[in-house]
Amino acid sequence: MLGIFGHPIAHSLSPKMHQAALQATGLASEYVYLPFDVVSQDLSLAVGALRALHARGVNVTIPHKEAVIPLLDQLDCQAGAIGAVNVIVNDRGWLTGYNTDGIGFIRALKEEGGVDPGGKKILVFGAGGAARAVCAALATSGSAEILVVNRTIDRAESVAEMVKSLGTQAAALPFSSGKLREEVEKADIIVNTTSVGLYPAGESLLTAYQGCLKRRHLVCDIIYHPRETLMLSQAKTYGCSTLSGMGMLLFQGVEAFKLWTGVEAPVEVMRKALEENLC
Ligand code: ATR
Questions:
Q1: Probe ligand 1: pick from 177, 194, 204, max atoms within 8 Å of CB?
Q2: Domain ranges, residue 184
Q3: Same domain, 47 and 117
Q4: For residue 150, which of 119, 133, 175, 120 has the smallest C-alpha distance?
Q5: Is 195 in the pocket of ligand 1 (CB under 6 A)?
Q6: Which of 86, 104, 138, 260 has the lowest CB atom count within 10 Å?
Q7: 126 and 156, same structural domain?
């Protein structure tokens, strides 16, 4: 058995994506992928049930990505640096936590955006769990420098410290900084990891800085609903390349599938399942 623990969970696209992958790889007789609506006070029981039921593993999503850590036996090093887990693998009762969100973002960047983050200057909006995953993966993929911009500066500083601990140059800035315009101009890749722009609100953190965008910029949003956020449509107006959050959603799932089954995930089947079920 496979599945996803979260609350709320009804709108998760992961069951559709992974069931399609299990069917396509002939593994549907061995595994089923189910959504589990787990409230915070039941998380410990739910993790215990993985052991009791010999489930192979689960995805973990909001609000449990951090709270689940003390309930596991071991963390992979990326998950440890990030401080959040989105995949649990159960090896005969021994539970290991992984984080495939960041590697999912890097694969989307390379395979959908056609860009290698190696040597690039990256400006990241946000300093939550998603930002930590994206920044850790960028740092370990050879990015030259990461600037973390966040409303709450303490959180941005904490992410910048994590990036430096992984051996990559980093700095933190608040949105109010007068240097932000210049930093947008200097960046190669701009990534929104905040919830600003999420359906139905049509907002963008780039609105005040869109005039600094050049054709050479790649602008990424980890939001996939809507498929094209206001930030991405602003970037397109200035001739930039853009990348939506759909690729990160797809490739975090592709990486998780391999961890559980040992089988290469059918990427195009999973992409089709997402596209069919995204509004
Ligand atoms: P996740 O784990 O999905 O990253 P999170 O930890 O709640 O979620 O982080 C949300 C991010 O979106 C944070 O960077 C948050 O900024 P703060 O750290 O200052 O709270 C950012 N965010 C959310 N709403 C925002 C808004 N209206 N303007 C700017 N940033 C916002």
A1: 194
A2: 102-244
A3: no
A4: 175
A5: yes
A6: 260
A7: yes
